[in-house]
């Protein structure tokens, strides 16, 4: 053996360095392990690199211009997919911007996780003045379903898993996940890191109703002379479309859909009482609520929208037991997930189910046809400037011809009138302001609807509502999304004709007259249209949707056409004092 051979033979083996991972990669790996493929957010300290790395790892990262709109996108992504939408924000002000969307998601029962970077605990707890110092966890807790903070890289897998399960299980909602800046750069053994990740099994397990609850509900339904089903957005979220349709048609009970439940059955279905809503609610004697709450949108189950106090019996399906009796007595509470509860009701009906009396069905049919006939002439005008009815009549036809497109809708008159005028034909195709009725959801919802479904989006906005999120047209153009925005421009909030009694300033509800919102879209490379008649509106929207390009139609509406607060002006208090001259 040569000397060289001896040296080679006797040299100690060099141990391979262990493979390492860090907090950045563990967060990404935890999300991907659970089938989450898209993040909505705004980059900045300390989460800029997390977005870059997520994109490099194959995730889709959609960057917005404002965190609230990214949060709205995440929230509606959760509604559409039944998986928690992810919103990623920077600390303090960015977190607060996203918090509005998180609270709204919780109120609307949309599964969403707000992930925010934050300052270091040691400095925050001693209030020593760190960059964007804020106890974000404490602030988030009252406004969401659950809130967690992760301090160690080894706990990232558990933290993400807990957030996912909390967002999806039971009644869905918003979850906050606080990730301090130091967490991202923490390093650990890659193999140990991989083992620390958790794949959430059955995040939203079925919750079957008690047999006695189903029997009680069916007994109450059998006793009804004028039964009614009210479908809420919870029914749309459940994706139990076939079972719900079968329940309606097997029972023969007419139904009223809340706005985001429109399309579960086509609005043109013979049992749809949407166009006779007032009569249906007021005259019904038994109401089955499916995924709908007796909140302000249903006049709390009492008052002038309903019959005499105590004349209506309510059956309610909800996964949250505490929802029962929240406003009025629920005589037959059915607690469980909607799919299981609806199927149990169907199974209990059997072959000999007696459908409602024909005179009740005929009463609603007659009222529906009368209301539709009364509305028809208002939808046919081609006058310039347009009023809301004429403009929405044009869009009504477009949606009928494009039932697969997703309609996003917000505003005051624009929203309230569109709910009744524009028929929907497929489930989860109408997205709007939901339970809180807040404005500003439009662009976020439009972006997520296009990203998550790949379908064309028609976003119908009042000019006031558009102003909350209008800068996101740049986001729509940047990602080349098939979104056509129609802005109903009547120069103001409700109307554009108010004046300042002092003559000093514009009225509080008035905008710059004759604004050209279409130019905003053109500035970012999209297509802009300026229209003044329903015929022009029809041509512009069809051309835009056929092209698949980002587009904005500035639809000129008569400044005097609107009414204050649309259909909820009664919620706006009036002064009880008359000032003496």
UniProtKB/TrEMBL annotation:
EC identifiers of the protein: 4.1.1.8
GO biological process, one term: fatty acid alpha-oxidation
Cofactor dependency: thiamine diphosphate
Keywords associated with the record: Decarboxylase, Lyase, Magnesium, Metal-binding, Nucleotide-binding, Thiamine pyrophosphate
Source species, domain of life: Bacteria
Assembly description: Homotetramer; dimer of dimers.
Protein name: Oxalyl-CoA decarboxylase
High-level lineage: Bacteria, Pseudomonadati, Pseudomonadota, Alphaproteobacteria, Hyphomicrobiales
């Amino acid at each position: 053996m040569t000397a060289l051979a001896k040296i080679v033979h006797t040299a100690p083996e060099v141990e391979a360095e262990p493979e390492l991972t860090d907090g950045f990669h563990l967060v990404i790996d935890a999300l991907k392990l659970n089938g989450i493929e898209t993040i909505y957010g705004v980059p900045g300290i300390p989460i800029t690199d997390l977005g870059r790395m997520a994109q490099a790892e194959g995730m889709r990262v959609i960057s917005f211009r404002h965190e609230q709109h990214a949060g709205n996108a995440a929230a509606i992504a959760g509604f559409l997919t039944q998986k928690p939408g992810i919103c990623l924000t920077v600390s303090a002000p960015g977190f607060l911007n996203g918090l509005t969307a998180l609270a709204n998601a919780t109120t609307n029962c949309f599964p969403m996780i707000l992930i925010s970077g934050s300052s270091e605990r040691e400095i925050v707890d001693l209030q020593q003045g760190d960059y964007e110092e804020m106890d974000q966890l404490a602030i988030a807790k009252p406004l969401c379903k659950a809130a967690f903070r992760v301090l160690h890289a080894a706990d990232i897998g558990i933290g993400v898993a807990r957030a996912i399960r909390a967002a999806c299980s039971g009644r869905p909602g918003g979850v906050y996940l606080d990730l301090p800046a130091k967490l991202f750069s923490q390093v650990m053994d890659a193999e140990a890191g991989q083992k620390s990740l958790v794949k959430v099994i059955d995040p939203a397990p079925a919750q079957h109703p008690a047999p006695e609850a189903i029997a009680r509900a069916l007994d109450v339904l059998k006793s009804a002379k004028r039964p009614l089903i009210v479908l809420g957005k919870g029914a749309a979220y459940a994706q139990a479309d076939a079972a719900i349709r079968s329940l309606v048609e097997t029972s023969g009970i007419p139904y009223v859909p809340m706005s985001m439940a429109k399309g579960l059955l086509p609005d043109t279905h013979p049992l749809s009482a949407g166009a006779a809503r007032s009569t249906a609610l007021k005259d019904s004697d038994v109401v089955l609520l499916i995924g709908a709450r007796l909140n302000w949108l249903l006049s709390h189950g009492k008052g002038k929208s309903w019959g005499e106090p105590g004349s209506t019996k309510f059956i309610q399906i909800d996964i949250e037991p505490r929802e029962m009796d929240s406003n009025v007595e629920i005589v037959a509470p059915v607690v469980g997930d909607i799919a299981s509860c609806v199927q149990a009701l169907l199974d209990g009906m059997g072959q000999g189910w007696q459908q409602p009396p024909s005179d009740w069905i005929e009463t609603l049919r007659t009222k529906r046809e009368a209301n539709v006939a009364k509305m028809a002439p208002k939808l046919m005008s081609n006058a310039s400037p347009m009023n809301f009815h004429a403009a929405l009549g044009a869009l009504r036809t477009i949606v009928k011809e494009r039932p697969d497109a997703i309609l996003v809708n917000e505003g005051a008159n624009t929203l309230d009138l569109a709910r009744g005028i524009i028929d929907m034909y497929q489930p989860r195709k109408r997205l709007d302001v939901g339970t809180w009725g807040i404005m500003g959801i439009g662009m976020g919802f439009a972006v997520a609807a296009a990203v998550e479904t790949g379908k064309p989006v028609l976003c119908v906005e009042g000019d006031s509502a558009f102003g909350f999120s209008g800068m996101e047209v740049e986001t729509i153009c940047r990602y080349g999304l098939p979104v056509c925005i129609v802005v109903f421009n009547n120069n103001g909030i409700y109307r554009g004709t108010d004046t300042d009694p002092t003559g000093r300033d514009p009225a509080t509800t008035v905008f710059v007259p004759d604004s050209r919102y279409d130019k905003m879209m053109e500035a970012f490379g999209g297509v802009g249209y300026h229209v003044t008649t329903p015929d022009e509106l029809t041509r512009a929207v069809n051309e835009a949707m056929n092209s698949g390009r980002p587009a904005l139609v500035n639809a000129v509406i008569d400044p005097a056409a609107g009414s204050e607060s649309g259909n909820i002006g009664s919620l706006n208090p009036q002064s009880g004092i008359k000032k003496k001259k």
